[in-house]
Specification:
The protein is an alpha+beta fold. Helix content is 18%, strand content 35%. The chain contains four helices and nine strands; from the N terminus they run βββαβββββααβα.
């Protein structure tokens, strides 16, 4: 399973790529495999400021619908519009073209709850 070492992870299977005060958020390869074929992604929180753990959208697969949780306190700046037409990008490239949102992290964003690749790997491999 691919768990890039340059990303941070949540226990809810989101990944976050932190670049200064900006970040990109998506779901992990493990999560997309568990969900199966993704058919719809909804994010109605663009422009909203959310706390870590708050729901920023939903992801729908053939069998289920799951909430998407914000990894850190941040303002949602952009939704990956490609997912509106091609949600299966998340299945094909979860760490690249399948990103979900771009955010501006709050100045006091707490990163202590995020997992590194090694800790996330241990989580998903039980």
């Amino acid at each position: 399973m691919n768990i890039p070492s340059d990303l941070k992870y949540t226990k809810d299977h989101e990944w976050i790529l932190i670049e200064g005060n900006s970040a990109t958020v998506g779901i992990t390869e493990f999560a997309q495999k568990e969900l199966g074929d993704i058919v719809f992604v909804e994010v109605e929180t663009v422009g909203e400021t959310l706390e870590a753990g708050e729901t920023f959208g939903t992801i729908e697969a053939v069998k289920t619908v799951s909430d998407l949780f914000m990894p850190v306190a941040a303002t949602v700046e952009a939704f990956n519009e490609e997912l509106a037409k091609t949600p299966e990008l998340i299945n094909r490239d979860p760490y690249g073209k399948g990103w979900i949102v771009k955010v501006a992290m709050a100045g006091d964003a707490d990163l202590s709850e995020l997992l590194d690749a090694e800790a996330y790997s241990a989580l998903v491999q039980g």
